[in-house]
Structure formats: C-alpha cells, structure tokens
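Action item from last week, closing it out:
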Amino acid sequence: MDRQELYIDNQLVELTQDVAVALNFAISDIAEPEKVKADYSKTIKLPGSETINKIFSHIYNVNIDLEHSSATFNPNIRVEARYSINSVELIDGFIQLKKINIKDGCITYDVNLFGRNANLFNDIGEKLMTELDISEFDHDWTLQNEEDSWATQIIQGGVPVPFALGNGYVYPMIDYGYDETEDEWSVENFLPAVYAKTYMDKIFEDAGYSYNSTFLNSTYFKSLIIPASRNLKLTSQQIEDRKCIINTALLQTVNTNNHGTFISGGNYTISFDNAVQDNLGQSGIPPASTTITISQSGIYNLIGEANYNAVFDSSAAAPGISVNSLVYMRTNLQLVVNGVVKNIRQLDISATNPFTNTYTTAINPTPPDANYTPGIFNPASVSIVNRNSIFLNAGDVVTLQVQYILLITGGAIVSPPYGLFDLFEDAGTPGTYYTGQVDLNIRAADLRVIPVGSNLVEGNSIDMNGMIPEKIKQKEFLKGIINMHNLYIQPDRENPKLLDIEPRDDFYTTDTVDWSSKLDTSNEILIEPLGALKFRDFEFSYKSDKDYYNELYEDTWEEVYGYRRVILDNEFLRGTKKIEVIFSPTPIIGDLDHDRIYPEIFKTDNANNKVQMDMNIRILYYGGLKSTNNSWLHTSTIVADVTRTDYPYAGHLDDPYNPTLDLNFGLTKEVFYSGNFATVNGTIAGLVNKYYYNYIREISNENSKIVTAYFNLNAQDINELTFKKQYFFNNSYYRLQQVIDYSPLQRQLTKCVFIKLAEIVPFVDAPFIINGGSGSVTGGVDNEPLPSFDQPFKDNNTR
C-alpha cells in the first residue's frame, strides 16, 4: 500500500482520506513559460487532531482572539505544505483554510492544497522596465567616459571597473538625426546603450530568481545592447536639485569713504547667510557666502535682487545747518560669472534737499518715489537684474555685486572745483561747502540660479534610470528575448526559482531514458504523421517603427525590415504561426564619403532635413571597435578634440563587411550601403536559421510522427521526469511532449505524448558576396534572395 505524507508548517499531520491529485506536464510549459499557470489546487479534508488543532491555533473556538493571543496561525497568510507518496515529494506548496466543520463534537477542516509553480512571468506581473534600478551605472557625460566604455572601463558604483561585455553600458556610434558633419561627432552625439544582459539580470534579481544558462553567459548574448530610445533628459529631481536660491536680511553698509573713490566708484560683493534651496551645496552656506559655484553644466536663468536705502551725512556742517546734497548715488546691480559682468540694473538714489545734517532715504517706499530713479519695482528701493538662458559650466562662480559711484547734478563724476569730500553746500550761504559721506545700506538681497529646460549637456551626470525604455513591460522584454532565440526555460527541481535557460537545440541532450519496460503494448498506440505540424506558414517579424529608413524599406518592399516567412511544403495545412518581438529593427547605413557603417535613426521634416525622434525599443549587437580608413573627430566643449581611426560599431550584424551572425530573422531585400570601400559579404545566420531551423525541420520532416501511448509510471518516474533527455521505447528514440493525468494513488496507466526523432542535417552558414540583388542563397530553412544595394540618405544640411 502506498504511503501518503502531508507536512504542514514542517509538521507531519494525519490524513483520513486519500489526496487524489492528477499531475500534468507538458513541453509547452518550457517553450512558452509565460502561459504557465502559477498554482494548481486540490480541496482536501483534515481531521481535528491534536497536531492539526495546534497548527490552526484552535481556531474552531469562536471566542479565541487570534490577534491578541499567543496564536501563531493567521488565516490571511499562506502555510507551507508538502505532499509525498512513498517519500517521493510530488507537491511543494501551501494550504489555505476554507472551512471548519463541527458535528457531534468532531472537528474537521476543509483546506485547499496548492501546488506551487514558481513562474517568473506571474511573479513580475505588469511591472514596467522603468521600475528597474540601474543607478549604479550613473556617470558623467564626458569624452573620456565614452571612449573608456568601448573597451577599457565603465563607471559602476561611482568607481571605475574593467570593461566586460554584458555589464552596464557602452556608447555605440548611432546617428540619431544630429546636424553634424559625418567626420565630426561631439560628446553629445553619443548616447549610452545598456547591455541586454544587465536588464535581464536586474529583472531576475528584482523578482527573486536566478538562472543557469550557457547562452545568457555567452559572448553573443553579452554583446546585445539596448540603445537609448530618446535624448538624455534631466529628471524632475535633478532639475530641482540644480536650483540654488540664497538670500539675506542682514544689513550690509557700504561706506563710500572705505570702498573705492568718488572718482572711479567701487564694487561691493553681496554676502548671503541663508540658503532657501541648495540641495547640492553650491553656495557653501553655512557659513555666510558671496558665491554660488555651479555643480552641473547646463543652461540657467540668473536672477539677483537687492533692496537699498542711502544715508547722506553732512557731518562737517554745524548742528541745525540746512544743506543741499551736491551728489546722488548711482547703483548698478550686477550679475557676475567668473568675474565677468553678464547683466546690469541701474538705480539712482538721491536726497530730498534741503535737509539738516543727515538725510535717510525711505525704506520700502511705494513707487513712484522721488529718492529712487527709475524705481520701477515695488518697493521703489528694490533693484532686480536677470540674465536668461546662459550656459554655465560646472565650476563657474556666480556672484551678485553692487557697483556704486557718486555723481553731481548733470551726471558728472565728482571732481574739482570741490574738494574730494565736499559733497554738501550750505542752503543759506551758497558757495559754502561741507565734507561728509554717503553710505549705501543693502537691507536685503537674494540670488537665484534656476535651470532652464531638461536636456543634459556634456559634463553632466547621467541618470541611467532615465535611459530605460518607457512603457515597456518587463515580461514583454523577456518574451522578446525568448522569441528571438527560441529559448526553453525549466525550473530546477530542488529550487524552482533557479531556471535553466537555453535555446531549444541546446536545451535538449543526447542522454537517454529507457522506458521500454514501462510501455503498455496492450493499449492502443496512436501514431500521427506530421502530428506536431499545425501551420503551413511561419512568419517572424520585428515591430514596425516610423524612422526614415524603416519607413523607406517598408514602403518599398511592403514588409518590416528583417522579416522572414517560411512556407512549408504541405498541401493540407493552412494558417500562419506568427512570432513577433517587442523590438523594432534597425537598418545600418553607409556613406559615399567614408567606410564607416552604423545605424541611423531619425525622421525627416518637410524640407527633408533630419529630425530627432523618440523611437521604439531596439536591440543591436555591439561589435566593438572597427577600424576606419577615414578618420573622424571626437569633439568636446571641455577637453581637447581627439582624432580617431576606429569607431564603436553596433548593428544587426556582428561586422558590416564580414558578418558571421545577423539579428534579423532573415535576409533583407536590400542593404543601405555599397562595396565602394571593401567587399560586402553576407551571412544567412539570422535568427530563424540559427534558432528555429532544427525545430521547423523536425516537425515538418516527412518522417516526423507524434506517438501517443500508455506507460506504467510510478512516483519515482515522475519525480525524475525531464524533457531534456530523449526517451527510448519500441526500438526508436523520441522527445517527450506531454504527461497527462498521472495519478499517484491509483494503479492506472498514464497517457504520454512523444515526437519521434528524425534525422536532421544541422544548419551551416553559407557566406556570400552581396552583388546587387542577383540570385539567391541556399543552406537555411529555405532559399532566400540576395539583397540589393541602395544609395544612402542625403539630407539638405551640409554634412
């Protein structure tokens, strides 16, 4: 008799009835993991034994308070459970308490026993790619960091780490529609691309999964990159952080006797003691400071404001003597960057004559006011100066200064015939002069540095989270990678959150399981010729996008760039199996003036000029540095330009002139470059031939058969079940497709479905020379026509 064991919360509990489960397994769960249901359940009845009552904290007692007692059971929380037969574990999952039944003093519990299928797609749900965090790769946008990313090092965690394919970012040469010459590329023309493996690893890490995969750790996969799909932008927080607003309410008195001379005037730099907003510490307050030092290069608005009044002091006149001031003070409020004045606001301050001994101009008067000219602000004693849209480099120093000078009536600078400090004249005795001074009181001031726009500029820190493609779900990204490479995913038996991931052909092994003795020959064996073939046509396609070259190709050929259709030779089947990925294709473009070939992604305006655009997510192969016979200039606004004789290539081919692989599903009808500089070779090692060839050949081979038979399986067979190995019975080798309704407690046969292995000639690449569209190439799933040449785009700009 079979021995059943149910463990709840790691405690063996009593069973009074069989747990009748029927287990099903299918290769489709591995080939299409996004369609696997997360959990399956079975309702069972448990007795109210001492052990089970304790596990459920005696919940049958309606008066028990689970919240405020020492109870450990919570009906809202899953309780771990395992179910085994003859010590072979069949279900690893959890239970949910549904009902408590009490009759004649006997207690029973109705519980749902859930088998748990760890499923990455269900666990990540509807999460977006933008919910990932790749901020560890934040770095400054500099010429050196761009160059380093190509083969030397990147910035990770704020420090340099050695270059490694698949880790972090790289700056490939891609024309996003910039108005530049072909031989000059500025720092701001390059945008960081993130390795697909980096995204993949982050998705797994965030979901609590890991993987074993030769493929995902291969040089090929580590070379796949996701280019930037939009311009570099400041985040709202970065914009807010760049703001610096400082002010002061402390009285600052400028004594004209001590600051400069009346002849030449003087300058006073205003000091501030309060930082209203300074997230980056650009003012250094506290202590008091006279400067704002720009932290990040960019375009800014500068605004300075000061509130003055003046004191006219005829100290040499006898007390009670009425005097007239011979002078007025001219103030120029100046915004200064690195010692250079960027803008000025003038305000003249005068006394009301005559006055006795001392005259103090009004504080915060309502305009107009005769003491303040022009007095256009409210109060009239305020002067405001601004400078809009000025580019400032990191390290630039901004100050707010007051330039002051004393003028006599008519605007002349104070000079003889008066003595140097003869500033006042006796109102009753003209020609009698008195010395004195005029003091400027700065009663309040503020200085504001406000960023303009959201575009980053060279030298800025790049928030790499801003590079993540928007509105793309993580499961869509995963499914795109899976569909491109026909990946099979199988959870590890001991750790269901450890996934084995390989392309179909690498997933299968030649290890054999012999089920000859388990085959029941007394039951019918069903054989279906070509039973696995459900469609006549297979269509493989990227997602259409609206950039210039994709639209040109689609308008010309009425199909998406890189599209592949395979039509099988079958007169009975109809219908099409469509496989589309979330990524859009990316044509690579040449030029008649140089030998560099790279992607160009832009739209055109009505005048046929290049226009930058937001694009759909792309995927490219980073081929490393390629030599060029036509040097180009890597330009910078911060450091010296660099002349380069190689360039960071990325495209759908691993090499544009001598490719060995192609990210397109099939050959394109034309290419957008020519053999002017070198022979252009081609490859048929596209995605269909590399990753779907054996699958399509196997199911469409005339010797292909689906075999359905019954087998005498036990719990150990199910526990060791694998789809990776081939199965031998009836003198033939098969691949397992399905196990249907295995019942561990009932002595019955189990229905299994297999596909008979056929002899398939492996795919071998057939390199060729692109000769302008004449002829076709064989060697893949079917023949493909050779591409034709096309002339590259030329816009109306001087390039």
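Closing note: The first helix runs from residue 28 to 31.
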